[in-house]
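[Q] Does anyone have a clean structure-token version of this?
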Amino acid sequence: MSLYVEGPTTLTDAYGLRADPSLYNADLAPTTPEQRTWGTYNYVALWFSMSMEVTTYMLASSLIAGGMNWKQAIGTILLGNLIVLIPMVLNAHAGTKYGIPFPVFVRASFGVRGANIPAMLRAFVACGWFGIQSWIGGQSISAMINVLWPSTAAMPWVLWTCFLGFWLLNMAVVWRGVESIRFLQSFSAPFLLIMSLVLLAFMTQKAGGFGPMLDAPSQFHTSASFLHFFFLSLTGMVGYWATLSLNIPDFTRYAKSQESQIVGQTFGLPVAMVLYTFIGIACTSASTVVFGHPIWSPITLLGQFHQPFVAFLALISILIATLNVNIGANVVGPSNDFSHLAPRLISFRIGGLITGCIGLAMMPWKLMASHTDYIQWLVSYSGLLGPVAGIMIADYFFIRGTRLDTESLYRREGPYEYIKGINPRALLALGAGVFAALIGLIVPDLRFLFDYAWFVGFGVAALLYVMLMGTASGAGGATPLAQRIAATGLVDPVLSSGAGAKAKSVSVRS
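[A] Here you go.
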């Protein structure tokens, strides 16, 4: 039914939400219909902007460096992104339906306090990515110096000084606030795309056209060797977006409708990734033709340019895009996660500094030492995040039938309190999923489990969680807030679709 509602449009004001101060603030509050402004185009644009970065290029080029030809690499990337699209859209559903972000959504399955555990796992991975992006930025600065003064190429201290300098630049931006680089967001991604196309044109000309460039054969001589690398790479493709597949509700809570986010993501994610990774695949294939061996890093490849101005301009674009992505994608999220642990002690600034220090301690130069180390990093952390995705999806769709008590997600002593705010069944399923996914790292005979880390962790955790929660009374949670509102004749603006909603015109949704 559709009603015209006068008065407040926030859950707190309209329904007298009794929120625990440690569980509620303006950033965590459910979105209102007036905030539901994202349409299909916005989600397509989101994926294109997030896909156009150096690590995406290197994701594709690592497959060529590992021995695949361009068709095998494109197929692996497309399949991997179609697979990760499934948990992406499923987890996005709750964000759109209830207007809640990831830290609130995950309280339903892990408990209002236990939700900090998956949040910390996600934060840990983001710290690793922060270190990787800082290393890439440092390499870009070093490469620019090498272009201007070629003699510095033989001085290792130049690279390390550039890396630490770029890391400190990121820390300074965090301390001053992310607004200091917000102006870069409007042009950094298009600029990087233009320079990538320039690099592609240069390599195409050097290789003698697309024919020789894309005719490079596969380096695998047996089906067994290809399949081993294929499945490991496929897991890496899924792992690349494993973090975002968890916190995608942070974006879809602003969707006008489920159709907007589903169509936008279904088109945007695979198309953007295939288009941009093709540049990485083509350039790396061309490097094999031109230089006799694949060069998987665009920074190393740009160092082969004999036109200093073009190389310098391209490296500047990488530097700007890297700084932009690093602050936006790898600092804001974990900083808030660390701050959420102890809001009175850890501010956003302190959380950002913690992120940077952990990222530095994870030695990103080792994670990016080669294409095999890069893929191993992707697969390894997918074993941590796959189980979280499995539990979230199993809880929301199979245990609760997409019904959540929105009010209770923001206070203690409700259906998501479990045992002192922690759901032990979720922790047991999480532990089992992570163990199954990563045991192959220390037991050689079980190495095949690690090659499928995300899939193994997801499946084990989801299955065990459903089994454990199926034995718990009232596992489906309390009566959803929407049903209580409908019973009283009121309308919940937070649960409304927001599609076509003008001011106070909203619809009840279950």
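[Q] Thanks! Anything notable?
[A] The chain has one domain: 2-507.
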